[in-house]
Amino acid sequence: KAGVTQTPRYLIKTRGQQVTLSCSPISGHRSVSWYQQTPGQGLQFLFEYFSETQRNKGNFPGRFSGRQFSNSRSEMNVSTLELGDSALYLCASSPSGGLGKTQYFGPGTRLLVL
Amino acid sequence: QQQVKQSPQSLIVQKGGISIINCAYENTAFDYFPWYQQFPGKGPALLIAIRPDVSEKKEGRFTISFNKSAKQFSLHIMDSQPGDSATYFCAASPSSDYKLSFGAGTTVTVRA
Question: Which chain B residue lies closest to A4 (C-alpha atoms)?
């Protein structure tokens, strides 16, 4: 099976702009989670979607939002970008059901805010 | 605040040696403890995971030891190889959801 894919891989934006990142989960996986990775804060959970519904949300401001489509593909959006939003954004997918809860990560989207 | 504390921040080991990384947690609701390996420019890759009902799990050269009463778990990399040089993250999640709380990471360097 193909792994988790994320597009674009790299992105440069300026402060105040907005950005949309895309994630395609492993075929058959219905849960998609998003994480932010920075050198200072490490890996932090943003939110998780299952069957087009947000099931869980981390401690990030409302500028960070997401959605999931009927084919399980997910997007996350960051509005009014700040310099501190520069990070690697990782998407992870999991098989449906509670057993294992194994999360498979994509390669990430590297966002640089200038 | 960090729900999972990981140490050391970095370590250097000779080829063939043993790398040991430790993690501790406070949240007793955690019931799933995976370890991830990350190479520069890549996403984290699942190495091995354990649940609290077992005290040890081994997969190849990687072993997780789990101490439920102490709320600690550790990763042992046996016969370390230069290709093991990477950053390792411990993580934990509760039974109720898929939210992973990660440790700060340990950068392992294996010298040939």
Answer: B43
Q: Which of 59-88 (B) contact A at CB < 8 A? A: none
User: How confident is residue A95, by pLDDT bands cut at 50, 70 and 90?
Assistant: confident
Phi, psi angles (nearest 5°) of residue A84: -70, -5
Query: Is the CB of residue B102 less than 8 Å from the CB of residue B91?
Result: yes
CB within 8 Å: A42 and B104 = yes
Distances (CA, A) of A12 to A30, A46, A85, A114, B104: 30, 21, 11, 7, 26
- Given this model, what pLDDT does residue A98 score? 47
A106 C-beta neighbours (distance < 10 Å), count:
24
Q: Which pLDDT band, with edges at 50, 70 and 90, does B23 fall under?
A: very high
A41: contact with B, CB 8 A cutoff:
no
- A55 token code pair: 């099931």
For the segment A4-13, what is each residue's pLDDT rounded down to a tens digit?
A: 999 999 999 9
**How do A104-105 and A87-94 pair as beta strands?**
antiparallel
- Decide: helix, strand or coil at residue A57: strand
